[in-house]
TrEMBL record:
It holds the Pfam family PDH_N. SUPFAM superfamilies: 6-phosphogluconate dehydrogenase C-terminal domain-like, NAD(P)-binding Rossmann-fold domains. It comes from Corynebacterium meitnerae. NCBIfam families: PRK06545.1-6. It is an enzyme of class 1 (oxidoreductase). GO terms for molecular function: NAD+ binding; prephenate dehydrogenase (NAD+) activity; prephenate dehydrogenase (NADP+) activity. This is Prephenate dehydrogenase. Its EC number is 1.3.1.12.
Amino acid sequence: MRDLAAEDISVFGYTHTKAGVRAATREGFDAHNDLTAVLSRASASNALIIIAVPMHAVEDVLDAIAMYAPNCGVTDVVSVKQGVYELIQQRGMQPRYVGGHPMSGTEDSGWGASKQGLFKRAAWAITYDYAVECEEAGLPVPRDWIELFRHVCKLARICGAEAVPVSVAKHDEAVARVSHLPHVLAEALSIVGDRGGTLAQSLAAGSFRGATRVASTEPELVRAMCETNADAVVKTLDEILELLHSARDSLSTHTPSIEQLAGAGYRASTRMGARHGARSESVSPIKISSRPVMRVQLGAHGWVKALKQTESLGGRIDVF
């Protein structure tokens, strides 16, 4: 809401908390806690609906949208995509849904934790499974869905983010590694640190605070992320447990060593840092760089294939 309003784009919203509504309206934002009224207004203005609730609340919100705003395009910012898409499929809403997930945020919650520019230079995952399904069935991708995909990409750009095409399955596997697993590790590390008592707490410095920052996230939100993506999170836990057990065994010998883990971790961190820090202003054709950008003409021949190619490179898209 902050980023859209800053660009003079009409935006209004719903939250179930009266405190959230009061906080937003005090700052001049158009916020309400009557979902039926807000969705009816969205229907009348043919608005783009952005679902920004925990996973456990998505089903009820979709049912309300189906009843009160059946003509509106829908996107979301939920941290898992497979579960949301299954709910969309159950309701036959694929032709008016494009999933999203901006990879940015803090450990804090509520209106007070929001700020303008929160998504600047962040990756904004945007799903395109429905287009693939249409092509595999030998059907043209509906123009309305293509326009919705364009609007979601524009939404990301207005918020200062970079659109990254993803399939729902690959998205959930990736975020299990770089988003959900860090929450699990932060919780465990916080517990271990706390068991050290006041001395450990008084000696805790930047590395510990950084590694445990997201442990301050509301437990319900952590549960919503990890429990709804459990299969992928378990696979990543198995990987990291194998690494930790190997490090433990190496340290418990007569000549303790953590050389293998430290060296491999350093190299992996260097690679990820290089990818993250690379500039993203390249244009089509794709340049083999850390963050390539593909210009995609939506609806043109081969455009879905171009999305797949960009996804395989972890690249960004610029649509026209």
